[in-house]
Amino acid sequence: MIEMQDVYKTYPNGVVALNGINVRIKQGEFVYVVGPSGAGKSTFIKMMYREEKPTSGTIMVNGVNLAKLKDSKVPLLRRHIGVVFQDFKLLPKLNVYENVAFALEVIEESPKVIRKKVMEVLDLVGLKHKIRSYPNELSGGEQQRVSIARSIVNSPKIVIADEPTGNLDPETSWGIVELFEKINDRGTTIVMATHNKEIVNATRRRVIAIENGKIVRDEAKGEYGYDASYV
């Protein structure tokens, strides 16, 4: 599903973000990516949906080498990858239904198909009763649920989440992780970068720890780690 081989990333300012990454994530896995701030987690995550390109190395996602993918083909790639951000990135002038439908309108789905898919995912995330609400009328947790609904409305094989609970209180964060687990149970691969030690330790999924641009730990049923620099 996702494979990186000898991946290096050096930014124009000379900062080495990734330093020889080798990893393989299989279909249907749920993986946490952890590490201290500045370790390279965000760059690692962004590589998977071609927000960043490697300086060298191979990145295969759904059988496509992202290192060689033309910029014009990136939108097509992202139709099969859902992305969830810490700050939600909802369109403020669109209501809940319209925000989720927008992802399907871009690929010119029919109105009938759009309505069916949107209502299905809003039901999954528990927001069918909020379809006419606007982002500023929602709590942070509700906004993140809309963001997740938008990311899965086109039935992607992979959902990539970059600190999706970073702006949420502990109770709301648990609700979001439980939602990701429900999505994972449907066969979708989940890759989630997080600083949430409690959730990682409690759920005991695969943990990939990154420090100084390198994978220093990869455990099938891992924990967050106890180094204070991770917090």
Automatic annotation (TrEMBL):
<dbReference type="InterPro" id="IPR027417">
    <property type="entry name" value="P-loop_NTPase"/>
</dbReference>
<dbReference type="InterPro" id="IPR003593">
    <property type="entry name" value="AAA+_ATPase"/>
</dbReference>
<dbReference type="GO" id="GO:0005524">
    <property type="term" value="F:ATP binding"/>
</dbReference>
<keyword id="KW-1003">Cell membrane</keyword>
<keyword id="KW-0547">Nucleotide-binding</keyword>
<dbReference type="GO" id="GO:0016887">
    <property type="term" value="F:ATP hydrolysis activity"/>
</dbReference>
<dbReference type="InterPro" id="IPR003439">
    <property type="entry name" value="ABC_transporter-like_ATP-bd"/>
</dbReference>
<dbReference type="InterPro" id="IPR017871">
    <property type="entry name" value="ABC_transporter-like_CS"/>
</dbReference>
<dbReference type="InterPro" id="IPR005286">
    <property type="entry name" value="Cell_div_FtsE"/>
</dbReference>
<dbReference type="GO" id="GO:0051301">
    <property type="term" value="P:cell division"/>
</dbReference>
<dbReference type="GO" id="GO:0022857">
    <property type="term" value="F:transmembrane transporter activity"/>
</dbReference>
<keyword id="KW-0132">Cell division</keyword>
<keyword id="KW-0813">Transport</keyword>
<feature type="domain" description="ABC transporter">
    <location>
        <begin position="2"/>
        <end position="231"/>
    </location>
</feature>
<keyword id="KW-0131">Cell cycle</keyword>
<comment type="function">
    <text>Part of the ABC transporter FtsEX involved in cellular division.</text>
</comment>
<protein>
    <recommendedName>
        <fullName>Cell division ATP-binding protein FtsE</fullName>
    </recommendedName>
</protein>
<dbReference type="GO" id="GO:0005886">
    <property type="term" value="C:plasma membrane"/>
</dbReference>
<comment type="subunit">
    <text>Homodimer. Forms a membrane-associated complex with FtsX.</text>
</comment>
<keyword id="KW-0472">Membrane</keyword>
<keyword id="KW-0067">ATP-binding</keyword>
<dbReference type="Pfam" id="PF00005">
    <property type="entry name" value="ABC_tran"/>
</dbReference>
<dbReference type="InterPro" id="IPR015854">
    <property type="entry name" value="ABC_transpr_LolD-like"/>
</dbReference>
<comment type="similarity">
    <text>Belongs to the ABC transporter superfamily.</text>
</comment>
